[in-house]
Amino acid sequence: MSGGAARPLLVVEDAWCRIPTARGVVEALGGVDLELAPGEILGLVGESGSGKSTLAKLLMGVVAPGASKAGRVVLDGVDLESLPPEQARRIRGKRMGMVFQDPMMALNPVVPVGRQITEGPRFNCGATREQARAEAVELLGQVGIPEPARRLSHYPHQFSGGLRQRITIAMALACRPDILIADEATTALDVTVQRQILDLLARLAAQRSLAMIMVSHDLSVVAGRTHRTAVMYAGRIVECGATARVFDAPRHPYTRALLEAIPRMDQPPHARLATIPGSTPDLARLGEACAFAPRCARATDCATRPAPPVVRDASGGALRCHYPLDEAR
What we know:
The protein is of the alpha/beta class. The protein has a domain at 1-76 and 213-263 and 278-329: P-loop containing nucleotide triphosphate hydrolases (Rossmann fold), CATH 3.40.50. Helix content is 31%, strand content 22%. It has helices at residues 52-59, 85-95, 103-106, 113-124, 129-142, 148-151, 161-173, 191-208, 219-222, 243-248, 253-260, and strands at 10-21, 24-36, 41-45, 68-75, 78-79, 96-99, 179-183, 211-216, 228-233, 236-242, 311-312, 318-319. An eight-stranded mixed β-sheet has the order 6-7-8-3-9-10-12-11. A four-stranded antiparallel β-sheet has the order 2-1-4-5, with helices on one face. The chain starts with 9 loop residues before the first strand and ends in a 10-residue tail after the last strand. The mean pLDDT is 91.
């Protein structure tokens, strides 16, 4: 799913991830194609369980125990999946950083934050102890930690939730990566701090010419902050395009349903919020038809037809739907 004329920095081709469970094999990802251009910010949205975090972790080389994966993850022309695991890990450690949803889960509670920030530069980038410490102090200052040199010796519990998330951002940036993946990076924070963290990520991306993938179930997070938006459902990308186009003229019924479910300030008091009927599908029982068909008012015969193929347009957008919204029914 192309991001335009610029040579892609990251290319994902036909990415699959299957996880064995007691209920059967869960198809967490079902053939994902994605591109990310240098300096581009991509929003990755969808309901919980749609595969967003699985895709983000697969890009970082992390999958669930016992899971099988397939497809290509090409970073700046190098297919990471074809390399020995240790070589791929080092490339990812240098060139890709990730900010996780819960900073207390991402940080080791019994290790000072300074040591946690310096581990990446020392082991992945060959920095000396002094170089890594100087970089850590600079990073903590850039992400807004007061008295950064003094606080290197502090432990995670000595920081507030918002400051802990700033520390995980510093850790993700410690090796000066080309790509930053923010996986629901503000979900565990209150609304005021959420905006501060989002603004910080956008500012750092601009300052460092970072490409970024912003993963969220909240469409308001990616609105106005991303160049393109990809919408995921049941482990597949069902729509992708310029963010303004996706928000103003969604083509997939699921995308429109997500947008209609956002509360609006201009709604009358006590108005009933829009919801999407039904529930997300069981990924161990997907079958061959369109996964969204049971919840889609336009899908009169989709349940008996094979899942739709991906159709790309000249602007770099992509759509996976038998009956897009710009076609009459």
